[in-house]
Amino acid sequence: MTDLTGTQRLYYDDAMLLRFSASIVALADDGRRVYLDRSAFYPTSGGQPHDTGVLADVTVVDVVDEDDRVAPCLAEPVGLPVGAMVVGQVDRARRRDFMQQHTAQHLLSALLADRYGWPTVSVHFGDVTSTVDVSGVEGLSAAQLTRIEHEVNEAIVANHAVAVSYEDAATATGLRKASDRDGMLRIVSIEGLDRSACGGTHVARTGELGMLLLRGAEKTRGHTRLEYVCGERAVRRARADAELLERTARPLSAAPDDLPVLVPRQLERLSEQDAEIRRLRKALAGYEAAALWQQAAPDASGLRRLRHEVDGPVKDAEALAQACVALGHCVMLVTSRTTGGVLIATAADSAVDAGASLKAALQAVGGRGGGSPRLAQGSVPDIARLPELLSALGF
Ligand SMILES: [Zn+2]
User: Fold this and answer.
1) Torsion-angle region of 321 (φ positive above 0: left; ψ -120 to 50: alpha; else: beta)
2) Distance 53 CA to ligand 1 centre (A)
3) How much distance in Å is there from the Cα of 205 to the middle of ligand 1?
4) CB 214 within 8 Å of CB 181
5) pLDDT in tens, 25-71
6) DSSP SS3 for 8
7) Which domains does the chain have, with CATH numbers?
8) 189 C-alpha vs ligand 1 centroid, how far in Å?
9) pTM value surpassing 0.85
């Protein structure tokens, strides 16, 4: 059943009217979509997300705007017929939160346009943060961002009145952005700062915004996107930031304020230690190589066959293999106990081509690999076939 009469939007004239009664004028979606003669529930529109709450004791999960009608969508069928009176209750915290984010956007957009010459091209109100995209920004420093934040907060503390008026589109003047609508416009004014045509919900005075935190700015599709939070969200974000810093500082036995000095110092120490570890590994590889070379008895031609096994990737033993072959007259074979990886390195005077011999031996056992005459790498498909590969390579 359809009723084409429009819904009276109660939130237009009283953004803090949260409990209201209305009558059902039509139903859809098996009674889950309820058309009312009047609604304090705000529908998703103008970038602002919908309200939640309860209608006739059923949870409101969405509110849709269908031109002249507003329909709360329920989690379950309303269970009442057309004509029934129902009571709706808007979720206060969510409504107030979006009123704050939305009004803050008007204030921020006004300031960015008037003081910096950056008009707003689009806005987004998210569940966690909100964004304003502006054009004309040549570059935005951290100091400038802090200054803008300070200026917005000064306007908040000044507690400017925010008022709604209705004016004819043909005669309304001083609008920040010309409206493309005809007829009556709903105009939201921030005393002395802004006049914008808008259908959203706003606070009554800027002081209700609490504080605004500019989270950052980034370039996006030719514009600059400023991310912000205000009100309770700003406090929550600041609290989360403080906890993050605290958790980061704790393992370092430091105070959060010391982190900017301490963290670079620790990173520098790490990089010095890495360099030291590389130097020690190289020295160790030299000793290990000498021992391996000594242990391997030379064959009739004077060639020594050196064997080494690793638990991880064979690549880890490459430095050792290089140190061995540097001693001359030898072939070094590294295998992995876990991966089936094989690495072979040959001394320049060994007359053994590492790449060619490994490739041929691997092909015989269904493996793959290859490399240069001095260094080659590969793997067997099954570790059980390693002994076969070893004998093919003369080990
Ligand atoms: Zn607005």
Assistant:
1) alpha
2) 21
3) 13
4) no
5) 999 999 999 999 999 999 999 889 999 999 999 999 999 999 899 99
6) strand
7) 8-90 (2.40.30.130), 96-249 (3.30.980.10), 284-392 (3.10.310.40)
8) 9
9) no
